[in-house]
Amino acid sequence: MAFSHRPKETFPLILNFGATELALPVARVWHRFAGQRNLARQWILQWPEHTATALIPLVFVKPCDNSEAALFALRLLYEQGHSELLQTVANRWDRADMWPALEKILTQNPMEIYPARIPKAPDFWHPQMWSRPRLITNNQTVTNDALEIIGEMLRFTQGGRFYSGLEQLKTFCQPQTLAAFAWDLFTAWQQAGAPAKDNWAFLALSLFGDESTARDLTTQILAWPQEGKSARAVSGLNILTLMNNDMALIQLHHISQRAKSRPYVITRRNFFRWSQKIAG
């Protein structure tokens, strides 16, 4: 199927087509590809019955990429108010235990949701050489073991979704030290050639970035198109949109005023969507 190999080009063509055969490829996009997540989400919510029919059986197989993708898509339906539909579809298998088992999985503690396979640390992962997060309670830096745990949690990131344990980390560590750590991680990723499979190191800026991060990232976003890195500039804009601080909004507005190349035109939409979210 062309969609499986070229989702970016074919996604707009399938949004108006509901088919169980499309459910798994779309779920895989929702699970792994941040750039197309909004379209995948739109399809899943537009065709909930097709999604449920195709994906419910996959949740009960041996953990793998497909079962994880199916679970994330079904959890989206559950969270968006489709529990009755999911129960109706599950009952078609004529097994009394199907729906209770499925609902238990869908309501699992977020701290227990992580990939079946934990990716190994990349070669550029040397956190002992970077700025260390400091604890709020006693101003002590986190230990080497804690750094490795943070790295594992960051590598859980798939399709732009962060492991919930990282939100807890933010309650324990000084925000500015997390921002400095995230910037050093991002810098190491860039110096290693910015491997796409490790783009969690880039996305970490959206989770831990502060106002200083927004300023520094904007400088890079403005430079990347001239270096032939327009795709990275677009990703940077999305990260800036997610950073959720006043300086990020100011920088988005700044970039939108300079919008002459296509990546910056996209920023106008990001800027207005972000400002509406803040106002609302």
From TrEMBL:
Name under which the protein is recorded: Molybdate metabolism regulator MolR-like protein
Source species, domain of life: Bacteria
Source organism of this protein record: Escherichia coli
